[in-house]
Amino acid sequence: MAKFTKKDYQDAMNQIQKEWRNFDVPKLIHDRIIELAWEGTKPEVVVKIIMEEFEAKECYANKCYHFSDAFKFERERYARIGMYFICDVCTESCIPRSCR
User: Fold this and answer.
1) Residue 7 CA to its chain's centroid (Å)
2) Of residues 36, 38, 39, the one with CA closest to residue 47
3) Among 44, 53, 72, 78, which is disulfide-ready with 83 (CB 3.0 to 4.6 Å)?
4) Which candidate, 99, 94, 93, places its Cα nearest to that of 28?
5) Cα(89)–Cα(36) distance, rounded to whole angstroms?
């Protein structure tokens, strides 16, 4: 098995940070997440509702929640300490048809 160098690690972290800053949640999904957050719905329930209402896979619904404004302050706090949400299992097929 190949061993990762410090450069490999840094390149991977740069890619994760770039994705972290560039993902845009589709407006329909974002608005629904915000509505549910204002109602005090727990994050895991929000993800399930997004999955059901938009026929999204769990990985994509989770990604949308984490990149929404409902999670903004936690996301910024995590970024400051070097924690990034990684969704490497998501593919284009995970995106609901209504959002493609």
Assistant:
1) 26
2) 36
3) 78
4) 99
5) 25
* Residues present in the chain in total: 100
Q: Which long-range contacts (CB under 8 A, 24 or more apart) does 82-89 make?
A: 82/13, 84/13, 84/16, 84/17, 84/20, 85/20, 86/16, 87/59, 87/60, 87/62, 87/63, 89/59
Confidence of residue 21 (pLDDT cuts 50, 70, 90): low
pLDDT tens-digit profile of 35-44?
Answer: 999 999 999 9
Q: Cα separation of 87 and 90, whole Å? A: 6
Q: Please count the other Cβ atoms lying within 10 Å of the Cβ belonging to residue 47.
A: 23
